[in-house]
Design a protein that fits this description.
It is found in: Cell membrane. Its main location: membrane. It is a multi-pass membrane protein. By secondary structure, the chain is an all-alpha fold. It has a domain of 197 residues: MetI-like (MetI-like fold, Orthogonal Bundle), CATH 1.10.3720. Helices cover 73% and strands 0% of the residues. It contains 14 helices and no strands. The longest helix has 34 residues. It is globular, with a radius of gyration of 23 Å. The model has no long low-confidence stretch (mean pLDDT 85).
């Protein structure tokens, strides 16, 4: 007990060991496997090192899939950020007696499995789905719109899945803002747009950054929604990883894809968080 009082960091040791054993070691094993010669069905690490698995990624097909994955994730994150800020602002201004109910409504999609939600969107967006049938019945269109198995369908599905995470992150930042601050800006003559853009939004930076980190990470690693709603024409890197690990049993190349996906996600998120930190510091007058 005295040791814990002298070094409270020891309390974090069990969690660190759990994360290391359940997350870091498997990832390290996969990365090590990516540098081994490709042998179908083999998952044992060897001392033979090669870059053949990464050399295959220089093919334009894999580069295009990576760019497509980035594009879908960035657009999903941007839409989620805009909608999340708007929803969180509405919840922040909602009277206390209604706020709890509205938060439950926003979180309701998390109570349904991703597969069920994805199939629900398939019923809405399909060629013979509810939206097309309604538009044809109203005479708006003659032929059904092809909305399923496109990048747009994947983005819609991902936004629906990940929007609650963005709302919760931004709402937590809103709750830290003193309501007197925008009132003071209004008293000094600032308009609604100026109050939001120059007063409220900078104070939301921590929440927005947290939401962007969560949504972008989940979008980059999402598999179910792209696989069901994207089809072959809108495949992302995670579907290629699944094919290599489960269908063709090429674990070495699949591990290389995992390494590239992880490295790309970390680099982009690190850049975004650094830029956000610099912007926050400038706003606070530290730089």
């Amino acid at each position: 007990m005295s040791a814990l009082r002298r070094s409270p960091a020891l309390l974090m040791l069990p969690a660190c060991l759990l994360v290391t054993g359940c997350l870091l070691l498997p990832i390290a094993y996969l990365i090590g496997l990516s540098f081994n010669p490709p042998v179908v069905g083999e998952v044992e690490l060897t001392t033979t090192l090669t870059l053949r698995n990464y050399a295959r990624l220089l093919d334009w097909f894999y580069a295009s899939v990576l760019l497509k994955t980035l594009w879908v994730s960035i657009v999903t994150t941007a839409i989620s950020a805009v909608l999340g800020i708007a929803l969180a602002l509405s919840l922040w201004r909602t009277p206390a007696q209604w706020r709890g109910l509205l938060v439950v409504v926003v979180l309701a999609p998390l109570l349904v499995s991703i597969v069920a939600r994805t199939f629900g969107w398939m019923l809405l967006l399909g060629d013979a789905g509810i939206i097309n049938n309604a538009l044809i019945g109203l005479g708006v269109i003659r032929e059904p719109l092809h909305m399923m198995f496109t990048q747009g369908a994947v983005i819609v599905g991902l936004v629906h899945v990940f929007l609650p995470f963005m709302v919760l992150s931004v709402l937590a930042a809103f709750d830290r803002i003193d309501p007197a601050i925008p009132e003071a800006a209004d008293t000094l003559g600032a308009g609604p747009f100026t109050i939001f853009w120059q007063v409220i939004l900078p104070l939301l930076n921590p929440g927005v950054a947290a939401g962007v980190t969560i949504v972008f990470s989940l979008a980059m690693s999402s598999y179910v929604t792209p696989a069901l709603m994207g089809g072959s024409s809108a495949g992302v890197l995670t579907t290629l990883v699944y094919q290599q690990l489960v269908v063709t049993y090429d674990w070495h190349f699949g591990a290389a894809l995992v390494a590239v996906l992880l490295a790309t996600t970390l680099v982009i998120l690190g850049s975004v968080l650094y830029a956000n930190a610099v912007r926050t510091a400038r706003w606070m007058g530290r730089r």
